[in-house]
């Protein structure tokens, strides 16, 4: 019978805690270190690059071991979380000095990718959303909660709406029930970090009761989510999950909001990706947010990202933003003053969340005080009668003077980061604390007095008092004077040149000091906890301030960007006309070589006269850039930003659809063409009268005739749709589509111009009326560095094709002839052993050294091979 493994009390404690958190990597506090054991140790060592050792080496209880100092937690924890680990932090719950048995330990926090608030883990300029998802037949409920800011949002809808939200909010973790995981992957892919829960939190009224209990209300009507039963389940489970991860101080999650679908422009996930608003699949690509974000606070940066994926549809709201931006553009000095104040506010949103979580340190509380002073200044400077929107924003700000003054009075001006470092609470706050400080830190004079008195009494002039951690305060006597030491002194240490002694008086004083230091820490901890509790009562007004400052920051940022990049104020109307004069691509123009100007273009779309523009022209001429810039200008206008154009009249757009660029979805087994058709089908099935559609090279993923047929049918469908005249830009290399304009009055042909000089192509990048007959693809191939032989052959094929087409032959027949010609040229490519032998004989000849006689002999040899 095998001997059972013998466990130490420490490992018994570890294993019992580990069993409660089976999916997490457990950081187990032992003294001054966080230790990991077994499989956790192997994982941690690999991720962190720390040494992997063994405990009980060679024994039956041998265990892998890896650890790091506790003060390095902020360095190592982010690495573990970013590697996709769920990390349970197990701390010592009592002072080891106060117990004779094993120290009591417990998990104080479970950190996951979606449940993180530490500055070292979360990105300052991005939200860190945890998404909770619940599928109920054809309706999906979803909630997004950011524990680091207190934001809590809920929505429900069909598959495409939830897909769009996931793409826009980019959660770092998605939770769902175990049985719905397969369905989730089928709909949304496997690129999200997911965590699966048991079924029971989704059953009955548990989720709704969790929300009612948390917000201390009797009904969810006040939040406007009472008619979203599936969304409510998702939100309730999100709260449940936060509690399960040991986050129970959630008072900063003080409100839950419905994502109002009707208020925002529809941007599906393809459009968010294709327009490269906040991310790109291309390495090192510059996105729209990179160009537009010069915000002064992390709060502003996060709000800007939200605005970019959720443009407004309401004319009044858009114009309110544009008017504030316009006011700032005209008052430059005010702009700079407000930006300076916002920089002083800091990340108020995440700071107040830390107070709710009871995790804020003294230095962060001091920053809160500075932020509230800055808000007082912002309130005064934005009280502007000539701008209603700014005056309203100013009126809503709350300076929270009571708590600001409380912080000012309670804390030292420049406290340490850690509470246990001491000297956090100001003098004059607590009489006992002041008295103890005099004992603990005012004793230098008393020690000097003992030193002087004893030196005189003993006649030892070099006598000195010092302190060490081994035996506290001591008197040091050099060997020269050791015969003068009184009998009452107790020798503690002998050095080479001196001896060290203690006295009863010194021991009493030391006990008094050490006792005072412990009492000081206890009093400071109590006062600091009381202060945090008092600040927590102001969470809601401070969160409101944070939202107002973030909005102000983004609008100021828009003004600064507009001045810097020469943007103009767009005119927003309820018409359906889009008229852009001198439009530019906001991202491309920032990346042009120095001294090169962006070639501007006009775009006019009108459902009654010019609903669809077919854009032809060579590759690389700028067709795709023109499509994207039109979409970006409309989007920028409807988030309240000035636009890169000379003039822009934007009739409100409710949906932007794009089919731009090709990308295989190989992981789902979909080809380029399948992806293209999926995206196009999504557009055709969701059209509206105010939609803007941007189609680029539809049908290029299949054969030429299939491609032309599909592109032609799409253009006809959009033109002839009975109830919807969606504004469309259609870039194509199928010049046959130019024929559509002859039979369909609202389709117009345009082309992006080029100039051919000495058989070279110059791209003029200017959009002009009329169709184009050439694609200049071979010229582009030449620019890309294709071999000259290949380019020459392509030119021959093109010439022959053009001749055949003018003769009325089909492209397919022409290609057969060209392929036959190529077949004849490549005669030795035939799978024939005799011809292969002849090919090898010829390949082995060195023509440069061959004499005429040798050549005749070789020819005779080849003839004999053929005869045999």
Instruction: Report the β-strand fraction as a percent range.
Output: 15-25%
Terminal-residue CA separation: 82 Å
What is the CATH fold-level name of the largest domain?
Rossmann fold
Instruction: Tell me how many strands there are.
Output: 27
Using only CA atoms, what is the Rg? Answer: 38 Å
Tell me about the largest β-sheet.
Answer: 7 strands, mixed
**CATH A-level architecture of the largest domain:** 3-Layer(aba) Sandwich
What is the CATH C level class of the largest domain, in words? Alpha Beta
- Whole-number mean pLDDT: 85
**Annotated CATH homologous superfamily of the largest domain:** P-loop containing nucleotide triphosphate hydrolases
Q: Helical segment tally?
A: 29
Any chance you could write out the topology, listing elements then pairs?
Elements: H1 9-20, E1 25-30, E2 33-37, H2 38-48, E3 53-55, E4 63-69, H3 73-82, E5 87-92, E6 105-111, E7 130-136, E8 139-146, E9 151-157, H4 159-169, E10 173-177, H5 181-188, E11 194-197, H6 206-215, H7 229-244, E12 257-258, E13 266-267, H8 269-274, H9 288-292, H10 298-309, H11 315-330, H12 332-345, H13 348-356, H14 362-381, H15 388-396, H16 401-410, H17 431-441, H18 444-458, E14 464-468, E15 472-478, E16 490-494, E17 498-502, H19 504-536, H20 539-565, E18 571-573, E19 578-583, E20 601-605, E21 612-616, H21 623-638, E22 647-651, E23 655-659, H22 672-684, E24 691-696, H23 704-720, E25 727-731, H24 740-743, E26 747-757, E27 760-769, H25 777-783, H26 788-806, H27 811-825, H28 833-843, H29 852-867
Parallel strand pairs: 1-5, 7-10, 9-12, 10-11, 13-23, 18-22, 21-25, 21-26, 23-24, 24-25
Antiparallel strand pairs: 1-2, 2-4, 3-4, 5-6, 7-8, 8-9, 14-15, 15-17, 16-17, 19-20, 19-22, 26-27
Helix pairs in contact: 6-7, 10-20, 11-20, 12-14, 12-20, 13-14, 13-20, 14-16, 16-19, 17-19, 25-26, 26-27
């Amino acid at each position: 019978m095998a001997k059972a493994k013998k466990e130490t009390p420490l490992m018994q404690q570890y294993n019992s805690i580990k069993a409660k958190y089976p999916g997490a990597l457990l950081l187990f506090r032992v003294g001054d270190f966080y230790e990991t054991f077994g499989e956790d140790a192997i994982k941690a060592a690999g991720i962190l690059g720390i040494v992997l050792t063994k405990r009980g080496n060679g024994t039956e209880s041998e265990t892998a071991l890896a650890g790091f100092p506790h003060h390095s937690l902020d360095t190592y924890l982010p690495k573990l979380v970013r590697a996709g680990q769920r990390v349970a932090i197990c701390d010592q719950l009592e002072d080891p000095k106060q117990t004779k048995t094993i120290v009591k330990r417990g998990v104080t926090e479970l950190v996951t990718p979606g449940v993180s608030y530490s500055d070292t883990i979360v990105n300052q300029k991005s939200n860190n959303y945890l998404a909770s998802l619940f599928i109920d037949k054809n309706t999906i409920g979803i909630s997004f909660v950011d524990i680091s800011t207190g934001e809590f949002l809920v929505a429900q809808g069909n598959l495409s709406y939830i897909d769009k939200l996931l793409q826009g909010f980019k959660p770092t973790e998605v939770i769902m029930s175990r049985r719905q995981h397969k369905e989730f992957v089928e709909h949304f892919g496997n690129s999200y970090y997911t965590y699966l829960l048991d079924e029971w939190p989704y059953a009955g009224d548990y989720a709704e009761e969790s929300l009612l209990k948390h917000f201390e209300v009797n009904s969810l009507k006040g939040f406007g989510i009472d008619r979203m039963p599936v969304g409510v389940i998702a939100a309730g489970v999100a709260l449940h999950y936060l509690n399960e991860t040991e986050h129970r101080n959630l008072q900063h999650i003080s409100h839950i909001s419905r994502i109002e679908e009707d208020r925002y422009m529809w941007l599906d996930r393809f459009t968010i990706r294709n327009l490269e608003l906040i991310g790109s699949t291309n390495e090192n690509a510059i996105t729209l947010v990179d160009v537009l974000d010069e915000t002064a606070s992390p709060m502003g940066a996060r709000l800007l990202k939200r605005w970019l994926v959720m443009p407004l549809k309401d004319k009044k709201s858009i114009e309110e933003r544009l008017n504030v931006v316009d006011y700032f553009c005209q008052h430059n000095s005010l702009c700079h003053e407000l930006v300076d104040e916002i920089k002083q506010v800091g990340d108020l949103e995440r700071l107040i969340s830390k107070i709710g979580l009871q995790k804020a340190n003294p230095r962060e509380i001091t920053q809160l005080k500075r932020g509230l002073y800055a808000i007082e200044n912002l309130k005064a400077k934005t009280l502007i009668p000539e701008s209603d929107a700014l005056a309203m924003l100013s009126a809503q700000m709350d300076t929270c003077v009571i708590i600001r003054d409380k912080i000012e009075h309670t804390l030292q001006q420049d406290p340490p980061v850690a509470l246990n470092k001491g000297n956090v609470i100001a003098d004059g706050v607590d009489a006992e604390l002041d008295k103890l400080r005099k004992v603990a830190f005012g004793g230098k004079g008393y020690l000097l007095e003992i030193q002087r008195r004893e030196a005189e009494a003993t006649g030892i002039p070099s006598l000195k008092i010092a302190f060490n951690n081994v035996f506290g305060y001591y008197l040091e006597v050099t060997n020269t004077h050791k015969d003068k030491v009184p009998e009452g002194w107790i020798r503690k240490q002998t050095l080479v040149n001196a001896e060290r002694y203690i006295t009863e008086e010194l021991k009493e004083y030391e006990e008094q000091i050490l006792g005072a230091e412990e009492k000081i820490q206890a009093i400071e901890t109590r006062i600091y906890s009381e202060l945090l509790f008092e600040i927590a009562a102001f969470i809601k007004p401070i969160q409101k301030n944070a939202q107002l400052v973030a909005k102000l920051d983004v609008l100021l940022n828009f003004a600064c960007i507009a001045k810097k990049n020469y943007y103009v104020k767009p005119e927003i109307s309820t018409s359906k006309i889009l008229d852009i004069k001198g439009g530019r691509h906001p991202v491309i123009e920032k990346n042009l070589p120095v001294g090169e100007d962006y070639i501007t273009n006009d775009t006019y779309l009108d459902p009654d006269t010019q609903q669809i523009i077919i854009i032809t022209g060579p590759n690389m001429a700028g067709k795709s850039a023109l499509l994207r810039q039109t979409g970006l200008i409309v989007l920028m206008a409807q988030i309240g930003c000035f636009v890169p154009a000379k003039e822009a009249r934007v009739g409100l757009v409710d949906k932007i659809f794009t089919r731009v660029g090709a990308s295989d979805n190989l992981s789902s087994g979909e080809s380029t063409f399948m992806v293209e058709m999926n995206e196009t089908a999504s557009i055709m099935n969701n059209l509206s009268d105010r939609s803007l559609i941007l189609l680029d090279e539809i049908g290029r993923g299949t054969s030429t005739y299939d491609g032309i047929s599909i592109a032609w049918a799409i253009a006809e469908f959009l033109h002839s749709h009975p109830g919807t005249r969606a504004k469309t830009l259609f870039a194509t290399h199928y010049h046959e589509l130019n024929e559509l304009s002859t039979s369909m009055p609202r389709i117009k042909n345009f082309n992006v111009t080029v100039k051919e000089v000495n058989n070279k192509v110059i791209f003029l990048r200017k959009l002009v009326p009329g169709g184009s007959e050439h694609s200049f693809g071979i010229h582009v191939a030449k620019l890309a560095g294709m071999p000259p032989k290949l380019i020459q052959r392509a030119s021959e094929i093109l010439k022959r094709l053009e001749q055949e087409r003018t003769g009325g032959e089909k492209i397919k027949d022409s290609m057969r002839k060209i392929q036959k010609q190529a077949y004849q040229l490549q005669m030795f490519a035939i799978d024939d052993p005799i011809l292969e032998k002849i090919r090898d004989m010829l390949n082995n000849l060195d023509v440069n050294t061959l004499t005429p006689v040798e050549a005749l002999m070789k020819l005779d040899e080849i003839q004999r091979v053929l005869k045999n």
